[in-house]
Structures are given as C-alpha cells and as structure tokens.
Amino acid sequence: MRIDHVALAVPDLDAAARALLEAHGLASTPTSLQPEWGTAHRLVPLGGGFLELVSVAHPEIAEKSPMGRRVARCASTRSLAFWAVRPGALGPVATRLGLTVGEGERHRSDGTAYSWQVAGVDVAVEYGLPFFIHWLASGSLPHRLPVDHEARPEGFAWIEVGGDLTRLADWLGPADLPLRKAQDERPLVRCALRTDRGEIVLGG
Questions:
Q1: How confident is the model over 133-166, as pLDDT tens digits?
Q2: Which pLDDT score, from 0 to 100, does residue 138 have?
Q3: pLDDT digits (tens, 9 = 90+) for 56-94
Q4: Any long-range contacts for 133-140 (C-beta under 8 Å, 24+ apart)?
Q5: CA 156, 161, 74, 40 torsion-angle sign
Q6: Domain with 7 in it: what CATH number?
Q7: Residue of 52, 26, 54, 41 lying closest to 147 (CA atoms)
Q8: CB under 8 Å, gap of 24 or more: what pairs does 27-36 form?
Q9: In a domain? residue 72
Q10: Range of 82's domain?
Q11: Count of the separate structural domains present in the chain
Q12: Is residue 82 part of a domain?
C-alpha cells in the first residue's frame, strides 16, 4: 500500500499553483472541473503519486455534495481536505471492510483522460480517513501528466495525522506508510512533499 494522492483545498487555484511554482519549483496541470462535486482542481504530478489543488467552482453544487462541502470548509484555511491510498489489490480491502467498489473516469480540459476504481469515499469524507483507489491501465495516469517542473519531485515524505489513530489503523490494515502522529483532533493535519530542493510542508 502506498500514498496515492493528497488534496489541498485553496480559495484560489491559480494563485495557489503560481505560489507553488514560484516558491518550490513544482508546476501543475491546467484547471479542470469536477462537476459532480461543484469543485475544480489542478494536479501536481509527483511520479509515484500526486498533489491535488482543489477549490469550489460552483457553490450551489458543492453545497449539495459531501465532498464539495468538505472542500469549502477546508479552503478558507488552506487545509488538507482528503487523501487516498493505493493498495496492492482493491478487492480484498473492500471485502474486509464491507465496501462497495465503484468506478469513475475523468476527461480533462487538456485532452487527457483516465479511469479508476474506488472504495470508501463516503466514509473517508465523513471521518477524514483515506479512501482506496486503483487506477485502470487505460488512459494517462495523473501521477505522470506532463508539466514543466523546475524542481525534481520525489513523492510524499510523510503525512501527519491526528484524531482516532486506532480507527485509522483498523481501516488501513497492514500498511507501511510514512505517517506521523499529531496531537490534534483533526484526522488529517499536514503532509510533506520531497523534492531535490528539500521538503515542502503543506496544511497545518
């Protein structure tokens, strides 16, 4: 199991993307809508995973969606909104936790497309747990979308979590993830990206 992606909610996608590039040398994809949630995002490919910058695009739609509402709450403080992990196989995880496996696909404004299987999104959004994702072979994986990074990304250094850590451990099962314990009631506190220029800490 590995960290697949972490979403940082921001009030202004363009400003956040510009700041990340200017301060840390990491570029992002063009903005693309997530119409089912009333949100929009830009992706920062990291090779083995990606950072997702996300904001509310259509407040009236976001208000009707649990994911949209979470993004709206987190955007005002530039907090981490959600995260996903990629198990070796999705089926056994879903069976162990009694989860339904769903499918999705995204056709981005830049012409790329990708599809996936996912489990546990509703529970993850409600309790701040990671959801589980499996990327299908067809299409372009968001982890390696072409962008002009000035720094060399090397993936996630760590994720800092708080809240009910026993519940998190039971949810994940056997997993060797770079997690740090925080004295915080929030289940998802901060994360750090590793680059050839050093670590970039986000959230908090």
A1: 999 975 668 898 899 999 999 999 999 999 999 9
A2: 59
A3: 999 999 999 999 999 999 999 999 999 999 999 999 999
A4: 133/4, 133/84, 133/85, 133/86, 133/90, 134/86, 134/87, 134/89, 134/90, 135/86, 138/114, 139/105, 139/112, 139/113, 139/114, 139/115, 140/112, 140/113, 140/114
A5: positive
A6: 3.10.180.10
A7: 26
A8: 27/147, 27/148, 27/149, 27/150, 28/53, 28/147, 29/108, 29/110, 29/142, 29/145, 29/147, 30/108, 30/109, 30/110, 31/109, 32/106, 32/108, 32/109, 32/110, 33/57, 33/109, 34/106, 35/61, 36/65
A9: yes
A10: 2-151
A11: 1
A12: yes
The DSSP line for the chain is: -EEEEEEEE-S-HHHHHHHHHHHH----PPPEEETTTTEEEEEEE-SSSEEEEEEES-HHHHTTSHHHHHHHHHHTTT-EEEEEEE-S-HHHHHHHHTPPPEEEEEE-TTS-EEEEEEE-HHHHHHHTPPEEEEEEEEE--GGG-----SS-EEEEEEEEE-S-HHHHHHHH-S----EEE-SSSSS--EEEEEETTEEEEEE-
Asked if residue 184 belongs to a domain, the reply is no
Give the tokens for residue 19.
């700041």
